[in-house]
Design a protein that fits this description.
Layout (H helix, E strand, L loop, with lengths): L1 H30 L2 H9 L1 E6 L3 E6 L30 E3 L8 H5 L12 H4 L28 H9 L14 E3 L4 H8 L5 H16 L4 H4 L4 E5 L24 H4 L2 E4 L9 E3 L11 H12 L5 E7 L10 H11 L3 E5 L10 H9 L1 E6 L8 H8 L3 E4 L22 E2 L2 H5 L5 H6 L3 H14 L18 H21 L6 H4 L7 H11 L1
Parallel strand pairs: 3-4, 4-5, 5-6, 6-7, 8-9, 8-10, 10-11, 11-12
Antiparallel strand pairs: 1-2
Helix pairs in contact: 2-17, 6-7, 12-13
Protein name: Xyloglucan galactosyltransferase KATAMARI1 homolog
Membrane topology: Single-pass type II membrane protein
GO molecular function, one term: glycosyltransferase activity
């Protein structure tokens, strides 16, 4: 009898331990304190159960320190709930060799043939734009380079309202690695070890930091300000393009914000290219929107760009031919002939302001910075491949593509089946006005505002990117809490594909 009683007491203890653990888990789940829950599962003390197995109770405090008055970041002592709850971000103090040292020798090392110092000045905005054609507003306009996003984002991140110096309190961790500026130094380098060196060094350094082990990098993110194929060299052949940064196991665990992503990758998020407009107030944004709403547009459509030598892959030559044939209906700025004009914000914006539709064919890759410049000018973009925008900027552009754009299949242009002018002329005045209004409404979402302004503007491209990162990290935390193994292969919508297969996928989507 005594033996049975002892056994019963032991089982009661076991049930009590199980109940206590379940109660703690439920409490943390309901309160949204996932980081504490992860600590609970990763750091624990084991207790024997009937001499056969063990179960664990945490060795750390059961309740998170995140929302106590004494531990709120940045001196906030307002109580348990604060406006930054769930939005705190910690910035890694990266060695300077991963960011500022890369752009220090901007006159020769960033790109061999160009002096890039102007491009990285003013926090990545570049020099103030000259308003030679009296097109632009007095303030907020810069000659911004299309690949300057890393510096822009880093400077904006320093002004983020919910920064914390305590990494344990952060919902996400920003890593200011200038990956795009790094790879641009060596894109034409034949030695792949040189191309890969900084990325390998970065992956090794970040994985050794104490913050890494909390979620093995799944709460980390960085910005790569070039197209994703610059970081996904598929083989070790020196003739293949780019480095292997995005294929490193550590980087596969991180979220990467890029100007062009791969849709099947769970770690890439496409965010807008930088435009020329970086306003300092909401009033500047609204004044520009009002200006372009009232703008008279004498041309039906326009194209700003250069032809491509590979005529089988590119339709640009056919587009230029059609534009020239349309005469007064189409305005052409051929960047092979007028290259200086194509880098002049006033000249480019004049083209878009005077056109109802702006052609956005693929070039070296599917996306174009010109897409966002045309939106900035209130000009309705015309796409020829779904990869130009529809498969990319899902958090920025309307789901119903016909609300703000026109789609003409590449194959129709290549085979001479379709006249661009005829397609666009069929749009009624009412349709055009409605689409243009939708385009103009998009402007605040696709620009990066000046952080020196005190951020007195509506939600911009940066804000949307941060929301997406936090959403993804929180989803990952819930997955970990629920005991699911988050491997890259399981999360991918489809297996790893080559650039050739990627191209074929988009051709099929036409």
């Amino acid at each position: 009898m005594g033996k049975s009683t002892v056994g019963g007491k032991s089982r009661n203890k076991e049930l009590l331990y199980v109940f206590m653990t379940w109660l703690v888990f439920c409490t943390l789940m309901l309160s949204g304190h996932y980081s504490s829950l992860i600590e609970l599962t990763m750091s624990s003390t084991s207790f024997p159960i009937s001499g056969k197995s063990t179960f664990s109770l945490p060795t750390k405090s059961l309740f998170p320190i995140r929302n106590t008055k004494e531990n709120l970041p940045d001196g906030k002592k307002d109580g348990v709930l604060d406006s930054c709850s769930g939005r705190y971000i910690y910035i890694h103090d990266l060695p300077s060799r991963f960011n500022v040292d890369i752009i220090k020798n901007c006159n020769s090392s960033l790109i061999k043939w160009f002096d890039m110092c102007k491009c990285v000045m003013n926090g990545g905005f570049g020099p103030p734009a000259t308003n030679s054609r009296d097109i632009l507003q007095e303030h907020g306009w810069y000659a911004t380079d299309q690949f300057s996003l890393e510096v822009i984002f880093h400077n904006r991140m320093k002004k983020y309202q919910c920064l914390t110096n305590e990494s344990s309190l952060a919902s996400a961790i920003y890593v200011p690695f200038y990956a795009g500026h790094d790879v641009s130094r060596y894109l034409w380098e034949s030695n792949i070890s040189v191309r890969d060196a900084a990325g390998v060094d970065f992956a090794d350094w970040i994985s050794k930091q104490p913050e890494w082990k909390t979620m093995w990098g799944k709460d980390h993110f960085f910005v790569a300000g070039r197209i994703i194929w610059d970081f996904r060299r598929e083989t070790n052949k020196s003739s293949d393009w780019g480095n292997n940064l995005m294929l490193l196991s550590e980087v596969k665990n991180m979220t990467v914000l890029t100007i062009e992503s791969i849709p099947w990758s769970p770690t890439d998020i496409a965010i807008p290219y930088p435009t020329y407009f970086h306003p300092t107030s909401q009033e500047e944004v609204e004044a520009w929107q009002k200006k372009i709403t009232q703008q008279k547009r004498p041309y039906l459509y326009s194209f700003v760009g250069a032809p491509r030598p590979n005529t089988q892959r590119s339709i640009r030559g056919r587009i230029i031919e059609q534009c020239l044939d349309s005469r007064e209906k189409c305005k052409l700025l051929n960047c092979n002939i007028s290259s200086n004009d194509c880098y002049d914000p006033g000249r480019v914006m004049e083209m878009f302001l005077n056109s109802r539709f702006c052609l956005q064919p693929t070039g070296d890759s599917y996306t174009r910075r010109s897409t966002f410049d045309s939106i900035l000018g209130g000009c309705i973009p015309v796409f020829f491949n779904p990869g130009g925008a529809y498969g990319q900027y899902v958090s920025y552009l309307p789901k119903n593509h016909s609300d703000y754009s026109v789609f003409i299949p590449e194959s129709d242009i290549r085979e001479g089946k379709t006249s661009i002018e005829e397609v666009l002329r069929k749009k009624s005045e009412q349709e055009v006005v409605k689409m243009q209004k939708e385009v103009i409404k998009l402007i605040p979402k696709v620009i990066y505002v000046d952080p020196s302004s005190g951020l007195n503007t509506s939600e911009d491209a940066f804000d949307i990117a941060i929301k997406k990162v936090l959403e993804r990290v929180n989803t990952t935390r819930r997955e970990i809490v629920n005991g699911r193994t988050l491997t890259i292969d399981k999360l991918r919508k489809k297996p790893q594909q080559s650039r050739q297969q990627y191209d074929e996928d988009y051709r099929l989507l036409e």
